[in-house]
Amino acid sequence: MVVSRAFLPPLASAVFLLLLVAIGSLLYGAGPVSPAEALAVLAGGGTDEARFVLMELRLPRTIIGMVTGLALGLAGALLQSMTRNPLAEPGLLGVSAGSGFAVALAILLGATTATLTTLVAQLGALAGCALVIAATRVQGLGNDPVRLVLAGATLSGLLMALTSMLMLVDQRAADEIRFWITGSIAGKPLDMLGATLPSIILALVMIVMVARPLAAMALGEKAAVGLGHHPGRIRLLITLSVALLVGSATALAGPLIFVGLVVPFIARALAGPDIRRTLWLCAPIGPIILLAADIVSRLIAAPAEMPLGVVTALVGAPILLAIVRAGRMPSL
């Protein structure tokens, strides 16, 4: 994917804003360390306590938040482009709920390793993606963005109900599942990235492979075939990429909704309908949105924290309503 000179200013601005938000994530957060003390640590000084809080608590949280935001933002853009539906989002269409249900079931059965949890989450996300593709093939459903989202919401509700039923089986597992499904990146060690990074890197490679064919498919499948592309193969790669990204993000932070809707919405507003530019911008905007939401979750109920999933829902729900009430869907 080649970046044109005209596109560099918004991309550079997004990267710069990401740097500022990441610094803000280090300055405000867990532990009795003030922003001034955190700045002293970043400058190479500070007390041992401040250094411990910054490096062992806030830095891992910031890195995991960036990776999670990247994964959800790209997954949302891919889903929207594949379904040609600006409302398509992993949390709304049941992909995240499928991943979440799979992880909850794994926790109930005693899964403890991050690698196993990530694999299970990706399998659940893959099943959710398959259901989304099947829904887009239903006559009258795939062409109606609102009806497709309602179908996805029904699936999500069913899976969340099944997840709640699992919590009735084992009280020990119920406490862990309850904390996890609210969505959070607090207290997550960097070791968890070891299980998810290979999947995310593989997904990024596949995204590079499908970016140009996906842009051709925006002209129609016949035009894409005429240009030498294979729509069926492209959809398969996108499905696998979304499953890897959403499964990894869910394993890291729980089933977060609306991030995959908000990020592509902002990226398209800045980049236009070209999916290649949208994907480039989703890379920094995804981490920006998630880290900003995480900072708000720390400050809004200090010294306690509001669940991250609640904050993302509060941010994303008005944007969803605005898109629906606009009367016409943005062209993809």
UniProtKB/TrEMBL annotation:
Major location, coarse class? Answer: membrane
Q: For this chain's UniProt record, which GO biological process terms are given?
A: siderophore-iron import into cell
Q: Does the keyword Lipid metabolism apply?
A: no
Keyword terms of this UniProt record? Cell membrane, Membrane, Transmembrane, Transmembrane helix, Transport
Its transmembrane ranges are: 62-79, 91-110, 116-136, 148-169, 192-215, 236-266, 278-296, 308-327
Where is the protein localized? Cell membrane
Keyword Cytoplasm appears in the UniProt entry = no
Q: Which GO terms describe its cellular component?
A: plasma membrane
Q: How does it sit in the membrane?
A: Multi-pass membrane protein
GO MF assignments: transmembrane transporter activity
Q: Which residues form the signal peptide?
A: none
Q: Which regions form coiled coils? A: none
Return the similarity comment: Belongs to the binding-protein-dependent transport system permease family. FecCD subfamily.
Task: State what protein this is by name.
Answer: Iron complex transport system permease protein
Q: Which organism is it from?
A: Marinobacter oulmenensis
